[in-house]
Write a structure and sequence with these properties.
seven-stranded parallel β-sheet; single chain; 196 residues; alpha/beta; 46% helix
């Protein structure tokens, strides 16, 4: 266990990325024909064509779609994968591939070199990644632009933030303004480009 943690820590320290990175998060369980996968592909391809570097968790679904978008744009992309017992293996479209045994250190590697994060619909892992970035921004540890894609999917969560967390003063209302909600990938592309 200690040896695998040390190995992951060294990988995290030594990972070198170019500037202008965009990290994509979202479900590994979506197939290639899923609407959200297709949108992730289109956004990643647009960004890669404009010399942004795509970073994903390296699995299937949204991650595979984003890596494929960069691949089809003939640009390099990164996959920062994790060894899981039942579902995740590295997709074939990433140029550079790293494999972690520890989810926490892998999450650091996914976050540390990006200033832009696009969060597509996903499960517990996606929620974990989203809230990690929200906490870092909330506490002034990281300056980042956070884009939630899928208005219908994310609206119940945003309503919960307002109706429960803000109402109970567990968070401030201003904390709900550190992300933006979108249904058009062109909007996200334009915003990321303007914030370069």
């Amino acid at each position: 266990m200690y040896e695998s943690l040390l190995s992951d820590a060294l990988i995290t320290k030594n990972l070198m990325f170019p500037e202008n990175c965009v990290t994509f998060f979202g479900s590994a369980r979506f197939d290639d024909d899923n609407f959200y996968s297709k949108q992730a592909y289109e956004l990643a391809k647009m960004l890669a064509n404009d010399d942004f570097t795509i970073i994903t968790g390296g699995g299937g679904g949204i991650m595979k779609a984003a890596n494929k978008g960069a691949y089809d744009a003939k640009k390099e992309s990164y996959a920062i994968n994790v060894v899981l017992p039942n579902e995740q293996k590295v997709n074939e479209f990433a140029t550079y591939k790293s494999e972690f045994s520890n989810l926490a250190l892998r999450k650091i590697a996914l976050i540390k070199n990006s200033q832009n994060f696009v969060i597509f619909p996903g499960g517990y892992g996606t929620m974990d990644e989203l809230f990690e970035i929200l906490v870092l921004v909330q506490n002034g540890i990281k300056d980042a632009h956070i884009y939630l894609y899928g208005v219908e999917f994310w609206t119940p969560l945003i309503e919960f933030l307002h109706s429960s967390l803000v109402r109970e003063k567990a968070i401030s209302k201003v904390d709900t303004a550190i992300f933006s909600l979108h249904d058009q990938v062109k909007e996200i592309y334009k915003s990321i480009k303007e914030n370069r």
